[in-house]
């Protein structure tokens, strides 16, 4: 009996370990978004168009791998809630790319780090979920951090970038709560439509003609790895570990994103951004650690 329990524990532990590695891998790939935007050197609409086109193709491959011949039927049955999910993600994606073109990656990632708090607030009003004292304390710390960072904005473009970062984070928070409210929505199908919507919205405003091979390669890497592959890893890994642990591991994106552009393009965050970002990330870690399940001894 003891051996059976030990064997079962080993399987569960192995699955949890794999899940953590998958989610960490997704966060690692997501963190390259800012770097790929800088590499492409295109305007926001053109970047959105080509990145989303490559993401659409890669996600169609994922969809066919999951659903096979049933994929066209699945796509046709997306439904109203699936369209709402796709619309929210489309808004978040476009706002993300515009934010990266307007301000530093560090600014964008710092605002994005506050996403768990926005999720909790949205869930409180939409789903009636309770708000803990720990959340209120951590949320106040995060707000102070964002205020410090916003106070260090050196130009109108920075302020606009922060506004787009907030729009990106808010719509992504709405998406996560929407997915919890309507769990039957096929997120793979919704993400296919997300990138289709992005392509259609961006096309009239994008520069016509092929970008340079360097820019095209950057958009391809952005679309395939930071969207298709990362999404697949997070989808698989997120089902093997608690949601709080997945959110905590996702903070790798916040930490690594500014690092890549600093190393490659010497894009250094200012002192106030570092101070504010440290407060936001610390508040999120404090909040999420309190939600992790306690292991029985």
Keywords, please?
mainly alpha
Description:
- The structure is a single chain.
- Helix 2 packs antiparallel against helix 11 and helix 3 packs across helix 11.
- The protein has 13 helices and no strands.
- It is 81% helix and 0% strand.
From the alpha carbons, calculate the radius of gyration and give it in angstroms.
20 Å
Number of strands: 0
**Low-pLDDT stretches:** 1-13
| Order of helical and strand elements | HHHHHHHHHHHHH
Shape: globular
Q: Oligomeric status of the shown chains? A: single chain
**Secondary structure: helix percent:** over 70%
Helix count? 13
Residue share in β-strands: under 5%
Short recap of the structure:
With 297 residues, the protein is mainly alpha-helical.
Protein topology:
Blueprint: H1 2-30, H2 33-40, H3 44-67, H4 71-76, H5 79-102, H6 105-113, H7 115-127, H8 133-151, H9 156-181, H10 187-202, H11 213-237, H12 243-265, H13 271-289
Helix pairs in contact: 1-11, 1-12, 2-11, 2-12, 3-5, 3-10, 3-11, 5-9, 5-10, 6-9, 6-12, 6-13, 7-9, 8-13, 12-13
